[in-house]
What does this fold into?
Amino acid sequence: MIFTTQNIRKTFKTGEVAEEILKGIDLSLTQGEITALVGSSGSGKSTLLTIAAGLQPASGGEIHFDGEELTAMNQEQIRQIRAESFGFVFQSSHLVPFLTAEEQLLLMLETAGSPLSKKQRRDEADKMLQSVGMGHRKTAYPASLSGGEKQRVAIARAIVHQPKLLFADEPTASLDSTKSREVMELLQQLTKTLNIATLMVTHEEDMLAYADRVITMKDGRLA
Amino acid sequence: MNLAWKEMKKSKTKFVILGSIVFLISLLTFIISGLANGLSQDNAALIKNLPDGTIYMETAAEETHALSAIDTETQQAALSENDGAFVFSIQMGFLLNEQDEQQSVAFVTSTSSAEFPEVAKGEIILDRSLEEDGIQKGDRFTNSQFNDEFFVAGFSDGAKYSHAPVAFIHPDDYAEMYRTEDLQMLFLPEMAQPGAIPGLQSFSAGEFLNTLPSYSAEQLSLSMIVWFLVVISGMLFAIFFYMMNIQKLGLYGILKAIGVKTGALFRMIWTQMLVITAMALILSIAVSQLFATLAPGDMPFYLPIDATLQLTAVFFVIGFAGATLSGLQIRKAKPLQAIQQGEG
It folds into this structure.
């Protein structure tokens, strides 16, 4: 197990009222597998994903990643882990509007502190764009890409630095069914070939067919 | 990766607009500053061109040099005790040419001095601006308070006082015109170790200029305009970058989520601010210097390089402060909020 959570709790306080969103979650992720997190709105699945990704702190419990305790690290250490070892795919592609498809990937490599030379980085970025079927659009800016193309570039950006963990938050929510299937097939293929542990939040049942494991959340607990 | 440059290259219009506004405001600041300095020179070049030193006038004159009268005994004592000291007077008046046309001047006389030209009796030395107006060496002028004629012996550079050209005259001619051998002010150069002189009040050149009502009022107004423009530029930077940052908060959040350091995002806006400011200032310095050479001779415009560099430095500091202030939002940009954007 490359990633585990133990008894993760999250409480939000609104004035005097404290609401417990996560009530002791134990979760483990395996490399080469897509784990889908499903549940109704407000079940806590997105909160769990963001805590797992180090984007917000848990109120209690422990998170272990690659032998290290994430919950004991400071903000800068978590940022470094995110940059080097995590990849993110969001509902909207959230590409940088003033960078070309190739430059999006080069930025990720730079952020991750890649040891590759400038030319090697460029080759790596081009190779990754080829693998997601976007090699022919490497000089295109996001504004000139379709929704599906943007999401493909976003996936390439998420994995170009060879992360160990990929977090995907509703990666197909903004796509039609054909494009959604294409993106999921791509995620599935990359998860296997690059041996990544993928945690995906989705509410689309059709997409669960691409997951190796489906975890359902209800009222802050794993069902 | 130079994110700053990439964004500027992609969003040229946005940055050209910001650069144009900075250019226009900085150009306006340079022009107003040039006019302020020009007017200052026009008003008081005679005093401003004096070397460092101390000016004394009679205490009883209550800081009005026209009322000051330093008697010959005090003059002699001060001159004999201090090398490089001299006594001088300034009186506004006019000269009449052979066609009875009137020319306003500031009559200046002084004891022997390295700072003011030596003038023989009956001669005048005029400010160079009058030569540009057509007055020539050898021209003759009269004055209602002077029985003889003044003969133009030459011209002197940078001799303006109270927006009038200076006419240097001999102390005896001055005594005849103003019926007194007393002179108004004593000047002691810096090395003369100024001390208290009974009955006299001391002033630095700056303090002396501030006793001239027209000078201080004029300079205060112009300085206020200059600094107001500088502050506006700073606010402009802050507002413009604030608006840009507001639009990009989601992007900053995403960049932070994927691990980009907050410092890298600050470097991005600082670089953009530096590039825009540098380009706008280079252009406005060039245009203001061109303006200085093309401006009509009658327009008092003086923009020395030190004043230009001082304002340039202030623009950079205030631009940096404005960009940094607006950049504080970057610190507030939450990766979590960005990642949740668009969530149903």
Notes: Chain A has a mean pLDDT of 91.
